[in-house]
Amino acid sequence: MNLDFVFENNKKWVNEKLNNNKDYFEDMGKEQNPELLYIGCSDSRVTAEDLMGMGPGEVFVHRNIANMVIGTDLNATSVVEYAVVHLKVNHIVVCGHYGCGGVKAAMQSEDLGILNPWLRNIRDVYRIHKKELNAIEDQQTKYERLVELNVQEQCVNLIKMASVQKAFRQKGLIVHGWVFDIHTGNLKDLKIDFEGLLNKIMEIYHLD
Known about the structure:
Blueprint: H1 4-20, H2 24-28, E1 36-41, H3 48-52, E2 59-64, H4 74-86, E3 91-97, H5 101-106, H6 116-128, H7 130-134, H8 139-159, H9 162-171, E4 174-180, E5 187-189, H10 194-205
Parallel strand pairs: 1-2, 1-3, 3-4
Antiparallel strand pairs: 4-5
């Protein structure tokens, strides 16, 4: 695959931006002030800014397989810390998507090598919600529900973090759970009860 077309596309993109606003890149080079941290999946079909209709400087983005927030993952936790403490975002969104290969792989009884430790976290979500999921007979419906429950559990993992708890107390930071329907292009708000989840787990996870 010849990647020369990437640089050709880049030149076209630069010219397009400058034609619309001669100061576009000068403005973009200034300090960023996003209101939102978006944690999504690395899936090549799911582009964060596009699906939200947002542009450069409006959203801080972290992506990994199956939109996970794992306490031992220094990459994800560093992104959250930087976004909350230094960029002072007011909203964090965990956005999963139907058709997620990571979630589907976690549902299979298969050795996937180096992916096993990562997918184990999704299998833990299945274990926590096993009763609900095993009651769903249709495999596609079960799969999509696990996508939703995985988003919910990653929101819980965010709430466990000291920086998120402090930002909630100090300025009302809110954590949201969304799912992108890859078949329709629509976003679904899971209506995560952030304060309810926070109160539910604070007995164990409260950090001053």
